[in-house]
Design brief:
It is a single chain. With 305 residues, this protein is of the alpha/beta class. 41% of the residues lie in helices and 21% in strands. The strands form two sheets. A six-stranded parallel beta sheet has the order 3-2-1-4-5-6. It starts with a strand and ends with a helix. The model has no long low-confidence stretch (mean pLDDT 97). Bound molecules: manganese (II) ion (2 copies). One manganese (II) ion binds at residues 13, 71, 93, 115-116, 146.
Length: 305
């Protein structure tokens, strides 16, 4: 038996991929368990409710387990105990970190598409496996989430083509679903600001400099921007906790396709200003047309380091 697992601070793609890949492996006659290593966000909660599906089981440690990783391939993004786990496969669409070393050859499938769910659709097609309405709905939701309804520069023609096929299978209107998902994602009621910064947070190590980027994708940036003083107070604390040299937090406006990057000290400010060729105003660097951490924000920072 092996476990299928997505990344820390799971997003819709990480959760959905685990659920649908479980179905895929079961069709292949494998014994598998779908798991997660973090709390479900409000967008994913909405998607699972619509599909009437329970979230994968929460697991605290991956040590001594056989795991198949979806939607990530670096230890920083993986669950506790990953160093002591046996990784038996990877299905992903992120850059390679080079973390994974194995004793035996493993299944390793990475493509530069906008979403892991896109690759899962292709796996089903390859094997001629039927995709039920519910799975199609889940995969479609993941594509809309990861690509910000095809607006992120990570989107490929394949993501769009497959999303449209999925929408037909599950008889779902893409625009209406995306609108509801983004509204659910933007609901920050009951979430404290510290958790909001860490809800979608990734750590990087480049040229011996470690940094973290928190991202909050929303259709309603104002209520978050209004908490600026609190955010600026918390960022140095999180930086200390996470033992990183630099910390950034971006509020991404999904509708207007632009971001606000919080810079907390002189170091972050100089990196951000050089990386994006923009001036800081009131501790914020305004980034027009920038929405993707993977393709725009992280590379902009790495370029300067
Ligand atoms: Mn993800
Ligand atoms: Mn993804």
């Amino acid at each position: 038996m092996f476990y299928i697992c997505g990344h820390k601070n799971p997003d819709t793609d990480s959760i959905v991929s685990v659920i649908v890949m479980k179905d895929y492996f079961q069709k292949l006659g494998e014994k598998v368990k779908a798991i997660r290593i973090g709390k479900i966000n409000k967008e994913t909660e909405f998607v699972l409710q619509q599909a009437k599906i329970k979230p994968p089981a929460m697991v605290k440690s991956l040590a001594k387990k056989q795991v198949f990783l979806v939607d990530h391939n670096e230890f920083e993004q993986a669950g506790n105990g990953i160093e002591k786990a046996e990784i038996i496969g990877v299905l992903d669409h992120h850059r390679l970190s080079g973390d994974i070393k194995t004793a035996f050859p493993i299944y390793f499938h990475v493509e530069p598409v906008g979403c892991t769910a896109t690759l899962i659709f292709k796996l089903f097609q390859e094997k001629n496996f039927a995709l039920n309405k519910n799975s199609a709905f889940l995969l479609l939701s993941a594509i809309l989430s990861d690509t910000l309804k095809f607006n992120s520069p990570t989107t490929t023609k394949e993501d769009i083509k497959i999303a449209k096929k999925l929408a037909e299978i599950c008889k779902t209107n893409i625009n209406k679903l995306a609108e509801k998902m983004f509204k659910a994602k933007s609901d920050i009621s009951g979430i404290n600001i510290g958790d909001l910064i860490l809800m979608d947070f990734k750590k990087y190590d480049e040229k011996n400099i470690s940094f973290g980027i928190g991202v909050c994708e929303t259709v309603l940036p104002e209520p978050i921007l209004e908490k600026k003083q609190e955010i600026l107070k918390l960022l140095p604390q999180i930086k200390k906790q996470k033992k990183i040299d630099l910390i950034f937090f971006a509020v991404v406006d999904i509708i207007k396709q632009q971001s606000y990057l919080f810079v907390v000290s002189e170091k972050e400010r100089s990196v951000a200003e050089k990386g994006f060729n923009k001036k800081t105003k009131d501790d914020l660097v305004f980034l027009p047309k920038i929405v993707s951490r993977k393709k725009q924000i992280a590379p902009g920072i790495i370029k300067v380091l």
